[in-house]
Design brief:
Layout (H helix, E strand, L loop, with lengths): L12 E2 L9 E5 H11 L17 H15 L3 E6 L8 H24 L2 H10 L5 H14 L3 E3 L4 H10 L5 E3 L4 H4 L4 E4 L5 E4 L6 E4 L2 E4 H8 L3 H11 L13 H11 L2 H5 L12 H9 L16 H11 L4 H19 L2 H6 L1
Parallel strand pairs: 2-3, 2-5, 3-4, 5-6
Antiparallel strand pairs: 1-9, 6-9, 7-8
Helix pairs in contact: 1-2, 2-5, 2-14, 3-4, 5-13, 9-10, 9-12, 13-14
């Protein structure tokens, strides 16, 4: 779920995808795949599936969204989660319980035929299965897109790539990118476009937002270490729920007043901090486990391999897939043309 820093951040730049042309974005793969599973749905709220009942929403989003980004001159890297840190066990257990709750509500909504509730609970009960992750990696390889297998958090790995200058920004919905030290993040890359507001018959246009870590720290008058302390007060994936009665604004006041989480604890009436390994949570954000052993190489799209995965195995439309592949080939051909030839074309 990530930490809720949104109410505190006003320094964000709304941009069009075209303004990110020439940039390399490092996407948190799990974050993106969950977005595709939640958003790409049939009218009744169920995910896209082939004739064998295998879910294909994540592949549809991964393929067509990545093609869309490539067409705009954006190069992408995907970082996949590895083994979750032990600190995250409680959060994972709560997510599993919540999904099960929504599955039960979905079954009840299906019996009643309530389409609005079906859509809501179907999206909320999605689960990213291992086979979905493996097929996503196969598809990216066929598309010539590099991906990195993180030892732990994919978002931390993505932040590391940006820190190393291998990418311009992380692309994720979660503000955790900032806690992991990404100098720059872009939100809404995976969900850009016209979207329906939850539980309302209202549609809005969603655009990417660029957020700079330095600007956030300057705006909030915090160090990165203090930003992590603030996040712990609000609640992170490593301490879900945070401290009772403390939201983003109250947490900021406490860190401003006392300078650190430890100094603030003695002035709190709640005792949630007892038994909480604060230093371990800090370290998880400030010194996350990442790999330095990765190779980033963009290759030409393998048309035969893409068709084998999407059309032959998952029953996508051959005509539509071929049209998307032609769009990619056009981008690749343009990139190979000499600079002067492109200038005078």
């Amino acid at each position: 779920m990530g930490v809720n820093l949104g109410p505190l951040i006003s320094r964000r730049q709304e941009v069009d995808l075209s303004q990110l042309s020439g940039r390399i974005l490092c996407l948190d793969a799990y974050n993106a795949l969950y977005q595709f599973l939640a958003i790409i749905r049939q009218p009744d709220g169920t995910p896209l599936m082939n004739s064998r009942g295998e879910i294909t929403s994540h592949l549809s989003g991964l393929f067509y969204r990545t093609v869309n980004l490539m067409e705009r001159g954006i190069k992408v890297i995907y970082c996949f989660d590895g083994k979750p840190p032990s600190l995250k066990e409680r959060e994972i257990a709560e997510r599993i319980a919540l999904r099960e709750k929504y599955r039960q509500k979905l079954a009840e909504s299906l019996e009643r035929g309530d389409l609005e509730e079906i859509r809501r609970y179907a999206a909320a009960s999605v689960r990213l299965e291992d086979y979905m992750v493996e097929t996503a990696k196969e598809l990216l390889t066929a598309m010539g897109i590099p991906w990195v297998q993180a030892p732990a958090e994919g978002e931390a790995q993505a932040a590391y790539l940006v820190q190393q200058g291998d990418a311009w920004a992380t692309a994720s919905q979660d503000y955790d990118s900032l806690l992991f030290g990404s100098p720059r993040m872009v939100r809404n890359v995976s969900i850009t476009g016209r979207r329906k507001l939850p539980r309302k018959n209202v549609y809005i246009e969603i655009k990417p937002e660029v957020i700079e870590l330095k600007s956030v720290l300057d705006e909030l008058q915090l160090t990165r270490e203090q930003l992590v302390d603030l996040a712990i007060l609000i609640g992170t994936d490593y301490n879900p729920g945070g401290f009772r009665g403390i939201g983003p604004k109250r947490a900021l006041q406490l860190i401003h007043r006392y300078g650190s989480l430890e100094n603030a604890l003695g002035h709190l009436s709640s005792r949630e901090w007892e038994g909480l390994d604060i230093e371990a949570i800090r370290k998880a954000f400030l010194e996350p486990e990442v790999t330095t052993n990765y190779k980033l190489e963009w290759k030409p799209i393998d048309e035969e391999a893409v068709i084998k995965i999407l059309v032959d195995k998952y029953e996508f439309s051959l005509n539509r897939v071929k049209k998307a592949i032609e769009r990619v080939k056009k981008v690749e051909e343009e990139a190979r043309r000499p600079t002067l030839e492109r200038w005078f074309a």
